[in-house]
Amino acid sequence: MKYIKEAFDHNWVAPLGPNVDNFEKVLADYTGVKHVAALSSGTAAIHLALILLGVKPGDEVIASNFTFSATINPIVYLGATPVLVDSEPGTWNMDPGLLEQAILGRRASASAAPSLKLWSVSDKASADKAEHRVKAIIVVYLYGMPANLDEIMAIANKYEIPVIEDAAEALGSRYKGKPVGSTGKFGVLSFNGNKIITTSGGGALISDDGKLIARARFLATQARDKAPHYQHSHIGYNYRMSNVLAGIGLGQMEVIDKRVEQRRNNFNFYKKNLGGIEGLSFLEEPDESYFSNYWLTTILIDPVKAGKTREDLQTALEKENIESRHLWKPMHQQPVFSSCPAYLNGTSDELFAKGLCLPSGSNMSDKDRMRVLNAIIKFLTK
Q1: Model-level pTM greater than 0.70?
Q2: 83 CA to centre of own chain
């Protein structure tokens, strides 16, 4: 409220202002990057990152298959084709082996990219060599869990393809002690209302490349030229974060470490009390290289071992007025992306069939957690 009041007191109710500048600085310090552009959403950040990497109609962008559609939509905005890569079981994130298969597969293919309902591929793009089409890799940190970043970056560097880290769900997570989003060419953050901290709606594009972030800010403010009048030489976007919302973000960043602790406490509580139940397993850190903010605590239910299905548990929780949710539906199962090139191993299909997100809010009390726990145990053991 202090930062919001300050914005109104100084009449900075605009998509620019001191709160925006300060929020960008705080985010840079926290994530360990040199430059940040505060934006209207994480989706806007992905869109701008792709533009800055030169993605055009007919190009291809390799992306995680097991994610929310906001990761993939900006690829389509630019007339490019998403190439979907399935998950590895340990992290539920992009499988490095399949990533390399996808790169080699796209390079070996001389056929035109498949058309989707939402765009067409130009004749010129169809004639381009396949090895020139893959312009970027978008790796997602699902539910706050870092990906196998060493292997993914090694493959990306081998083939000289820039990496965009979609860390929308993972602020506060680290891989080998380094904040996620700070290793690739770009990192993407989200401050949507359901994230670990929120500005109600918002996001950020982060990078060590100051020229690219300056360009992102330019494009995000309608690409207005430096001229004594309104002049535009490029297509721009209304993607900047407002000074009021940045004020909310500044207040939220003061408690980010506490929010991470609260989410991790939720996970540890569930794991301690449910970890021994036959047929129930968790998405958890594979080893000490991974530090997850555990944005959501997620479980898998093996119907053979547990004698119950994911749907059975969800229905039982609903009867107790406790909300749970399915894991993301994989992109290759989505009607709009079903014709995309996809490199699959069955992992995301299995996760979607067996997975459930448990109540994981930062404000859960001990009483709340016990209520959820008792409902789960009652159902699974009856």
Answers
A1: yes
A2: 17
